[in-house]
Design brief:
By secondary structure, the protein is of the alpha+beta class. It has one domain. It has helices at residues 2-16, 27-39; strands spanning 22-23, 47-54, 57-62, 67-72, 78-82. A 5-stranded antiparallel sheet has the order 1-2-3-4-5.
């Protein structure tokens, strides 16, 4: 249930969030991205920068050097791909 809540919170942030570059200046969004990446079983201790590519489409850079493409696919599922 907690995983579903985190994913729903992330989706709401991506859909209704600000249309500017997001990163370290928005700690709540960074936490949402960090949680989303962790829920996919991928390593990321903390998102330190995020670039918005479009609606529900981000490139997240982690403190440990990992980078991920986080987006919502055509079926509405959150997808995280390591870059």
């Amino acid at each position: 249930m907690r995983q579903r809540t985190l994913v729903l919170a992330f989706l709401a942030t991506m859909i209704f969030g600000p249309a500017r570059l997001l990163g370290a200046e928005d700690p709540s969004f960074s936490k949402d991205l960090t949680a989303t990446i962790a829920l996919q079983g991928l390593p990321c201790n903390k998102v330190v920068d995020a670039k918005r590519n479009g609606d529900s489409d981000y490139i997240a850079s982690c403190q440990d050097g990992n980078r991920y493409h986080v987006f919502v696919d055509s079926t509405g599922r959150v997808v995280v791909k390591k870059l």
